[in-house]
Amino acid sequence: MSHPAITEIAAEFTENYLGEFDAEHAGELRDARAHAADLGIECVSHQVAALLKLLAASTQAQAIIEVGTGTGISGAALLEGMKTGGVLTSIDLEAEYQRHAKELFTGLGCESNRTRLIAGRALDVLPRLSDAAYDLIFVDADAGEYPAILIQTKRLLRIGGLVIFHGAFATGIADASARDYEATAMRELATELRSDNDWLPSLLTVGAGLFLASRRTP
Ligand SMILES: C[S@@+](CC[C@H](N)C(=O)[O-])C[C@H]1O[C@@H](n2cnc3c(N)ncnc32)[C@H](O)[C@@H]1O
């Protein structure tokens, strides 16, 4: 167990260590974070963005799904990490947020055919996407829907593909007395990932907390 004070220092150091994942475009990323703040959207932290870029690069992802576009910070990190010709499919309820995201992607020099932005509810859109066609799925939306989204991701990922759920500790998952919709759903997600042999799971305390699991053969 690490000491709480050390954890706080470590978290601050970690967040400042790399800064934005793309120093050359730090201005555009700052603007996108400012738009997000105006709209009341919480973007992924610097460290989570850097990790997403790393994971997209190390899995050599060519096809990624993102649930929760926001103003595009996490999507931009995934685009930078994935293969040059790869395509990011990103879903959000709000078309207005996606307009900001599109602006960011263009500002970072990303060709328009590399992004497919779909305005809609994740659980309406995901069932329309192809089986076993994706290398990585990043979910950063309504925690209450995570267990239902997990069922979809199992079908959508290729074997060896990676699913990442953001916000584990933004809910009351670690507080045994928390019984609200989001904490309950996050516990359900945690249990499912741990008990289903099709998943090889891990839980990281990076950012708001990340559940990470690789899709494996049973
Ligand atoms: C935390 S923000 C995403 C931030 C973004 N990943 C980033 O780091 O820049 C969550 C987003 O999920 C979207 N959202 C919430 N519930 C959703 C759902 N059921 N289907 C699709 N999008 C949803 C919200 O509109 C919001 O833009």
Structural summary, described in words:
The chain is α/β, with parallel strands linked by helices. The protein has one domain: Vaccinia Virus protein VP39 (Rossmann fold), CATH 3.40.50.150. The protein has 8 helices and 7 strands; from the N terminus they run H-H-H-E-H-E-H-E-H-E-H-E-H-E-E. It has helices spanning 4-17, 26-39, 46-58, 73-81, 95-107, 122-125, 146-156, 181-195, and strands spanning 63-67, 87-92, 115-119, 134-139, 157-166, 199-204, 210-215. Strands 3-2-1-4-5-7-6 form a 7-stranded mixed β-sheet, with helices on both faces. Helix 4 links the parallel strand 1 and strand 2 (87-92). The mean pLDDT is 95. Residues 41-44, 67-68, 70-74, 91-94, 97, 121-122, 140-142, 145 line the site of S-adenosylmethionine.
